[in-house]
């Protein structure tokens, strides 16, 4: 048997001997989950990890959510128009929505400015009869995309007056002009996404997909912060787009998220217009379709299923959640809907592997063996460094987290009463980005 172990001072000596500069260099090479574990080693290490002077060099993970709230009442001008400021005027006031940051990681203050008070006011409407409001469309690796839309119009109904791309951690922003698209009888709505990767923080791109009255994509426009202009990519889309894979249809499935991987935006798409979502489509910054990865529904025997959500999860792998019915019989507590979480284990080979399988009663409580996607619940995030899936329960307005390792559901936040168009803006996952970007010029 050996002698007694070293006393605490002796054990702490190697840590104390490592210079701070060397520790900072080492911390800069760590993934976010390892970095945050090292905060627990000592107060000195915790100070180095959380020091604002160093954190721009460190990997970051999910800090929380930007959540919309209903304000207590309409603004003064809308109360005058609405005749007294009752419920009807509050619900039609474009300023009656505020935002707050919901901390899920123990992120130290200061928290990001969820109100975006650092942004300039939206441009005045041309006819001066209705104000503009800001709506969050997308968020990616620390940047947030907002659209300036008229009053209470849906953000995809008409072209936004302009866009803002901003970094709440640094209070920097850039204005993106409208694309110039004018709706026609056959192209009535547009969906806009942010393409950004924190590993290349000095440029961002926007991809605007224009839809016809059947919700099929008919045109693509792209914006690059490098040259500050929109480009019509109709030719690129027709030459290498989704039309080549089916019957001229390409439907982006609503509410199913988006993910950036390998420099491309990945969307859940129905590429034949008949059988539901069947591909994860990768589109690059020039509107070209790089590839389509078949979704794993072909490995599910039961055909009664629907798409739920795609996101970049742990190990930077693409995660895909889907809902399936039991193989036989009617839905019941013993045979409920189930949520399957898949991981794209081999991107090049398109190989999906089941990561988790859970019944709806375990997710949403006993007696809830079937819930309608986007009506009773929505998936809003997959944790980028942990085995967590985040949901909104619409019936009680709760943001909840499901721990796939412990099979536990935890309430993260009460989202308030909702109402009006509030439900159109779901909680947005937020990962801080402390690096400065030349693409955000405050202009």
TrEMBL record:
SUPFAM superfamilies assigned to the protein according to its UniProt record, in alphabetical order: 3-carboxy-cis,cis-mucoante lactonizing enzyme, F-box domain
Highest rank taxon of the organism: Eukaryota
InterPro entries given in the database record: At3g26010-like, F-box-like_dom_sf
Full protein name: F-box domain-containing protein
Organism per entry: Sorghum bicolor
């Amino acid at each position: 048997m050996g002698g007694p172990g070293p006393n605490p001072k002796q054990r702490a000596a190697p840590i104390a001997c490592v210079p701070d500069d060397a520790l900072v260099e080492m911390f800069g090479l760590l993934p976010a989950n390892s970095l945050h574990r090292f905060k627990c080693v000592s107060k000195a290490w915790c100070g180095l990890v959380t020091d604002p002077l160093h954190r721009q060099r460190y990997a970051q993970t999910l800090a929380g959510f930007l959540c919309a709230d209903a304000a207590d009442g309409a603004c003064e001008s809308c109360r005058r128009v609405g005749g007294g400021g009752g419920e009807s005027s509050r619900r039609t006031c474009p300023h009656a929505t505020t935002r707050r940051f919901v901390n899920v990681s123990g992120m130290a203050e200061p928290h990001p400015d969820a109100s975006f008070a650092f942004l300039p006011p939206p441009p005045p409407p041309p006819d001066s009869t209705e104000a503009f409001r800001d709506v969050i469309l997308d968020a990616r690796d620390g940047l947030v995309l907002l659209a300036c839309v008229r009053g209470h119009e849906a953000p995809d109904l008409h072209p936004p007056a302009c866009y803002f791309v901003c970094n709440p951690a640094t209070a920097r922003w850039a204005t993106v002009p409208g694309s110039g698209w004018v709706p026609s009888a056959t192209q009535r709505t547009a969906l806009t996404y942010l393409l950004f990767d924190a590993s290349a923080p000095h440029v961002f791109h926007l991809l605007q997909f224009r839809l016809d009255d059947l919700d099929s994509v008919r045109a693509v426009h792209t914006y690059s912060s490098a040259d500050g202009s929109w480009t019509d990519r109709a030719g690129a889309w027709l030459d290498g787009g989704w039309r080549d894979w089916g019957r001229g249809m390409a439907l982006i499935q609503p509410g199913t998220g988006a993910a950036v991987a390998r420099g491309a935006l990945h969307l859940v798409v129905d590429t034949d217009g008949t059988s539901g979502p069947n591909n994860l489509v990768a589109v690059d910054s020039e509107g070209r379709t790089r590839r389509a990865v078949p979704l794993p529904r072909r490995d599910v025997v039961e055909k009664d299923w629907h798409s739920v959500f795609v996101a970049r999860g742990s190990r930077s792998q693409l995660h895909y959640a889907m809902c399936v019915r039991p193989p036989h019989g009617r839905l019941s507590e013993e045979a409920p809907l189930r949520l399957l979480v898949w991981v794209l284990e081999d991107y090049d080979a398109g190989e999906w592997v089941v990561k988790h399988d859970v019944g709806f009663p375990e997710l949403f409580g006993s007696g809830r063996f079937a819930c309608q996607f986007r009506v009773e619940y929505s998936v809003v995030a997959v944790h980028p460094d942990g085995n967590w899936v985040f949901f909104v329960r619409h019936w009680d307005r709760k943001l909840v987290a499901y721990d796939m390792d412990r099979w536990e559901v935890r309430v993260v936040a009460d989202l308030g009463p909702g109402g009006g168009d509030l439900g159109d803006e779901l909680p947005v996952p937020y990962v801080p980005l402390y690096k400065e970007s030349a693409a955000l010029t405050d202009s």
